[in-house]
Design goal:
The complex is a heterodimer of chains A (about 300) and B (about 210). Chain A is an all-alpha fold. Helices cover about 70% and strands about 0% of the residues of chain A. Chain A contains 16 helices and no strands. In chain A, helix 1 packs across helix 3. The two termini of chain A are about 45 Å apart. In chain A, about 35% of the residues are buried. Chain B has about 210 residues and is of the alpha/beta class. Chain B is about 25% helix and about 35% strand. In chain B, the strands form two sheets. Chain B has a seven-stranded mixed sheet with strand order 7-6-5-8-9-11-10, with helices on both faces. Chain B has a four-stranded antiparallel sheet with strand order 1-2-4-3. The radius of gyration of chain B is 16 Å and the shape is globular. The chains are: A mainly alpha (about 300), B alpha/beta (about 210). At the A-B interface, helix 1 and helix 3 of A face helix 3 and strand 7 of B.
């Protein structure tokens, strides 16, 4: 990484003119403590005959370096998972919108008409425009499921611990919201907890709303399936473990099955205090006010 | 104030607009080789349009931090001698590379403006101007870290975005804090709130 060129040398040091690969590599991975009059230096050392020649060589190498590096980053597996999960959400959304249209249209002709993608599957048999539209809905829905499979496969390989804890689809959504595995690994667990709830968070920071308890991690069974009064605790516990999982996936890369067990136990404890509280006679607020540390 | 060489105020589509000479990039209207500079989409364009003295003369050597897709950088490249265009996000870099392919003066660099040592072996010193439009936290810090590229009488032309520092704070106090930090390294010559760019403060400064 820190292939620091010796102080006082530019990217072209030791390069032959026309060595595009070498130049690209030097621009991408090199560094220097401070800038210098590189064009003059290049002419002095014979790398180029004139400023014009130097700039032309630099520009050519820079375009190759930047173009390639950007494309490589976009090709990376976490980027692919992000594109796939977004495509899946788009396909689902469009399928549902179209299904509504089909339902409305079909209902105008037949009182018994149903709704949704399932209804579209039944309609496909008929031979008219509504049926043709219904067929598109069914196709889109099929594509969304194919994308889901592809998301699962990619996320399991790029972020195995995160996928194991969050489930592959939620893991991919978190990657998308954070902007990649590296960014997610650098995100604090309190931010991970509210990723996807930015509107609510900013409303809170402006002082006009309560703080959001959870963002997209709401879709996780451990949050949604926990009593509303304890969801904040559950969301915090889940976000904490997801953050650790993302960091292990990015920095270490090995599988840590212990994480899932620790999370299971943690959630079980949070839910258990609700069960305890329900056993009491006057329960409503006591469990809510109890901090995590009491329960742990 | 006179416009730098290579920038003109011309009537395009019945409207008096800033323009530079080059191939069109983002669907802007072109007239007789001059492409309209959309000041609604460009903070530097808005600064020039507002009559701020940018110190640009034409044929300048420029470091552009936060070049994004190259909308503004392409106009700068039209009149400058060389533009080192730094952008850290991979998606807009694809567009920026395309813009560079049609301009002999544009050098795209996929680098993080917070880490100037990662491009100091490419970008020359003694530059005429740094144009800065980075929408991340620590905008003043970025400007200070890149001061080493500027000539003694070079200019920092920055658009400070309040929301990038703290969405909840009052923009005025964000700007004050940023200016305070800048003043450790720069002498601030002019500041202005820009039309069409609410929430931004345009700053012209020179190294101390």
């Amino acid at each position: 990484m820190s292939d620091r060129t010796p102080a006082g040398t530019g990217w072209f040091a030791g390069l032959e003119r026309g060595d595009l690969d070498g130049a690209r590599d030097a621009i991408e991975t090199g560094s220097a403590d401070s800038p210098a009059d590189w064009p003059a230096r290049a002419v002095e050392t014979g790398f180029a005959d004139t400023d014009e020649e130097y700039y032309a060589a630099l520009r050519e190498a820079a375009i190759a370096a930047a173009g390639e590096a950007a494309a490589e980053r976009e090709r990376a597996d976490d980027r692919q998972a992000i594109h796939a999960v977004r495509a899946m959400d788009d396909a689902d959304r469009v399928a549902n919108e179209l299904a509504e249209r089909v339902a409305e249209w079909a209902a105008s002709r037949e009182a018994e008409a149903g709704t949704g993608v399932e209804h579209c599957r039944e309609l496909v048999e008929a031979d008219d425009r509504v049926a043709a539209l219904a067929e598109r809905v069914v196709d889109l829905d099929r594509e969304a499921r194919e994308l889901e499979t592809s998301v699962e496969r990619t996320v399991r390989s790029v972020a195995p611990n995160l996928a194991a804890l969050a489930g592959p689809t939620l893991a991919a959504r978190l990657l998308a919201l954070a902007g990649g595995l590296e960014s997610l690994a650098r995100t604090s667990s309190s931010t991970v907890q509210v990723l996807g709830a930015e509107d609510a968070l900013f409303a809170h920071l402006r002082g006009s709303a309560p703080s959001p308890k959870h963002g997209v991690i709401y879709t996780h069974e451990y949050v949604r399936g926990t009593h509303p009064d304890d969801r904040g605790s559950a969301a915090r516990a889940l976000a904490g473990k997801l953050t650790i999982a993302a960091r292990i996936d990015h920095y270490a890369g090995d599988r840590r099955p212990d994480l899932a067990r620790e999370l299971d136990e943690r959630i079980a404890r949070i839910r258990a205090r609700r069960d305890d509280a329900d056993g009491d006679h006057d329960t409503d607020s006591t469990a809510d006010e109890r901090g995590d540390d009491d329960a742990a | 104030m006179t416009l730098p060489e290579g920038i003109a105020s011309r009537e395009i589509d019945g409207e008096e607009r800033l323009a530079t000479r080059g191939t069109a990039v983002y669907g802007e209207p072109v007239d007789g080789g001059w492409r309209a500079w959309d000041v609604r989409r460009s903070k530097l364009g808005a600064m020039l349009d507002a009559g701020m003295d940018t110190g640009l003369a034409g044929d300048d050597h420029v470091l552009y931090l936060g070049a994004a897709s190259g909308t503004t950088a392409s106009h700068v490249a039209d009149f400058a001698r060389v533009v080192y265009a730094v952008e850290f996000a991979s998606r807009p870099m694809g567009d920026l590379v395309e813009v560079a392919e049609s301009r002999a003066t544009l050098v795209p660099l996929l680098k993080n403006a917070h880490n100037p040592e990662t491009y100091a072996h490419v970008v020359e010193g003694d530059l005429d101007a740094i144009v800065q439009d980075v929408a991340t936290r620590g905008q003043a810090r970025v400007a200070c870290a890149n001061r080493e590229f500027l000539a003694e009488d070079g200019r920092l032309l920055a658009a400070i975005k309040a929301r990038s520092e703290d969405v909840t704070a009052d923009p005025e106090s964000v700007f004050d804090a940023a200016l305070d930090e800048l003043r450790g390294t720069y002498e601030v010559l002019d500041t202005r709130r820009l039309a069409h760019h609410a929430d931004h403060l345009a700053v012209v400064a020179r190294p101390r």
